[in-house]
Amino acid sequence: MPHHDSPTPSSSSPHDADWWRQAVIYQIYPRSFADSDGDGLGDIPGVTSRLPYLADLGVDAVWLSPFYPSQLADGGYDVADYRDVDPRLGTLDDFDEMVATAHRLGLKIMVDIVPNHSSDQHVWFQEALRAAPGAAARERYVFRDGRGDDGELPPTDWPSSFGGPAWTRVADGQWYLHLYAPQQPDFNWDNPEVREDFHDTLRFWSDRGVAGFRVDVAHGLAKDLRAPLRDLGDQQSYQPDALPVDGSHPLWDRDAVHEIYRGWRQVFNTYDPPRFAVAEAWVGTSRRMAYASADGLGQAFNFDFLGARLDADEMRATIETALADARDVGATSTWVLSNHDVVRHVSRYALPGDHRKRDVEAWLLTDGREPAPDLAAGERKARAAALLMLALPGSAYVYQGEELGLPEVADLDRADLQDPMWVRSGGRVKGRDGCRVPLPWTTEGTSFGFGSGGSWLPQPSGWGRYAAEAQSGDAGSFLELYREALRLRRTLVADEALAWAGSQEPAPQGLLHFERAGGWRTASNLSDEPVRLPQGEVLLASAPLTGDTLPPWTTVWLRTGAASVSRSGR
Ligand code: GLC
């Protein structure tokens, strides 16, 4: 396998305002990426030390999940100070050095911003607790009197997303709102001070050279807080597709949220190049792109792709909708297979049945042995899905370790679980720790090269076989598949259009087949039967090819030389 000792320069110059439209963005979950000081927790200097690996992998940008001061009640998504680095993870100087190193390597840095709620350790919340009911300090959050004769009942029936009620009572008898853990009080976005403060935070990181932001719970900020607060009644269970499409839910995806992001866009556009953001918005498909509009954030995660079955018809429909919706607002689509909140896709695809939510949930309730995963099948499908994703127009978000083919660690000892979901669900749902186990870098050694100490979540004994060290240079490995795909992608991606092949004649069952500009064709056989290999020179395949067949669960990239294909899209 040829080694790319110097990274290919990005197709976009550092000042290209459109760099994100066709980017590959690598998500780092800092606690679990690389630990430079041996305390078992990944840190910023650890990230810096591994940036050459990411440049070599061929990504355009890195998105860091929260690294801010936090008591880690929700893995860092409980932020105590939005403009600092957690001392356990480094300093602002370390952050600056990371950015400088990234820029030298041609990589951009994006950071996570958590605007729906802070940590209860945030100075504002501490001030609110000390203040009396009705004081201005309480108006930055959502404090209310309870119901019942003595206010002993929560103000509404709103549930926390991690289980239990969304209200916690404080000493003087008032209740505060937290749609997640009690250590994550929700901000009151009707308060101009909150809005101004987030503008300052966006400027703070933009001034430090950050290219963009991933916006946590982007659909949650604008709540209907008018008195009397409305109960949810039968709207309690949260399903993105079941949210009202007119934006009338009291908590989620209200139209007023876009006014907040128009304000953010004005801040972004004072920079050259303008800063960019991607929304994490678990909303219905038809509502998603409002977050990605040109006067809004720029992009929105397309979780339909992550949730779709690996089935040609379902994938094709999901892809078509995503491309059309993005085009409508002048954005590009995003593609996500894994992140720090979901079961790693090797394991999802390894489950029997259709690996949809219900299978995964059933599995999360057990010790990860029932239903039994078929990891070889999962890996094969994950490789096919990766080449499919990386061939699509738009931006691909790769979650750390996905390029190593890491599976979910589904049998973590209960005593080691740290996700608030585990505790708040009363031990019913194991939660998300299984996709957050620290990465293996070396085949042996303390914590497989993650750091010189242990690791905050135990790594399985066989973890070394997935190590970057073990895969580097092995042409059949996941890592080399991703490296080669990203290298080719840079030479191949020419525009944002995609044309489905074979629209005249019905494609064989299970075949997903499309063309990109410049004579590049992708065919995925998402079935158990071999199909005929479409014509073209093979550039890359997710599994070995034999003769002129495309084996089951395989994606191939082909060069056809045909310069003109009919295009859907621009
Ligand atoms: C987002 C994050 C998740 C976190 C939640 C609350 O969904 O991705 O990890 O628990 O928001 O901040």
UniProtKB/TrEMBL annotation:
SUPFAM superfamilies: (Trans)glycosidases (SSF51445). The keyword Lyase does not apply. SMART domains: Aamy (SM00642). It comes from the Bacteria. Keywords: Hydrolase. CDD domains: AmyAc_OligoGlu_TS (cd11332). InterPro entries: GH, GH13_cat_dom, O16G_dom_2. The keyword Hydrolase applies. GO terms for molecular function: alpha-amylase activity. Residues 27-436 form the Glycosyl hydrolase family 13 catalytic domain. One of its GO terms (biological process) is oligosaccharide catabolic process. Belongs to the glycosyl hydrolase 13 family. This is Glycoside hydrolase family 13 protein. It comes from Streptomyces sp. NBC_01401. The lineage of its organism: Bacteria, Bacillati, Actinomycetota, Actinomycetes, Kitasatosporales.
